[in-house]
Design goal:
The chain is α+β, with helices and mostly antiparallel strands. It is built from four helices and 16 strands.
């Protein structure tokens, strides 16, 4: 791990590239270009940056971060941008999101909603990371399937929530099912009953599929996550079209 200030970033990048060139034919990008990219992003010229060499998907990449592991950006050894530099990032997770055996990347930002993130999937054909469109949550894959589900807060101190069932088509998340969980206790339960409404999504329209009593299926606050996982795992085939 190499620690440096912006005015020294270029020197460290050159050193990193020199060491890496012993094992690769890739040539580093002009250091001036990288320095300009960093300068345009960082307001304080003495802000500390950490530069790491990572081995991901049989590639050597350069990760930039701030202290406390705050993610900043990702480039190739040549200096080509894979994930643009940004000061609003919080941290990055490197994991296999879609079960294809390659490592993907989730970037979380500064927000009071902990599972809001950007997703970048590794494209085996181009050997690059591609932004997953229509996805701003940490989707979870249903085991041994090409389907995913999400969780999102929907008010009332998180007693109301939403969950989508989706599939990935050409690096875009397509919704095919939706659960509207209403666990909040209102003054007039007849007008606002505690219930779980489940919808099929066709042609971008929501069609009510089933309504379940909330307390029967989710007796306690923390049971909702288990319900969401089990429901989509067991019933996702009902939403395929």
């Amino acid at each position: 791990m190499k620690y440096c200030y912006l005015i020294l970033v270029t020197l460290f990048l050159i050193a990193c590239h020199t060491d890496s060139d012993k094992n690769t034919n890739e040539k580093p990008q002009d250091s001036t270009v990288l320095q300009n990219q960093l300068t345009n992003t960082i307001a304080e010229p003495k802000e500390e940056i950490i530069v790491d060499t990572l081995n991901i998907n049989r590639q050597k990449l350069i990760k930039y971060s701030f202290p406390n592991n705050r993610f900043f950006g990702l480039t190739t050894l040549k200096g080509d941008t894979l994930i643009k530099f940004g000061k609003d990032y919080f941290y990055a997770d490197i994991l296999d999101i879609n079960g294809d055996g390659n490592k993907d990347i989730r970037i979380f930002g500064f927000t009071n909603v902990p599972n809001v993130c950007e997703t970048y999937l590794f494209d085996e054909k181009t050997k690059k990371y591609r932004f997953l469109e229509n996805c701003d949550l940490d989707i979870q894959q249903i085991k041994n399937t090409p389907y995913f589900y999400s969780y999102a807060r929907a008010g009332c101190a998180d007693y109301n929530w939403e969950s989508y069932l989706s599939k990935i088509v050409d690096f875009k998340l397509i919704d095919i099912g939706f659960i509207d969980g209403r666990g909040c206790e209102y003054e007039n339960p007849k007008e606002n009953p505690r219930q779980i409404k489940i919808y099929k999504i066709k042609n971008k329209g929501h069609i009510l599929y089933k309504t379940l009593p909330y307390s029967k299926h989710i007796p306690t606050f923390s049971d909702k996550w288990d319900f969401i996982k089990k429901y989509w795992t067991k019933n996702h085939r009902q939403f395929i079209h």
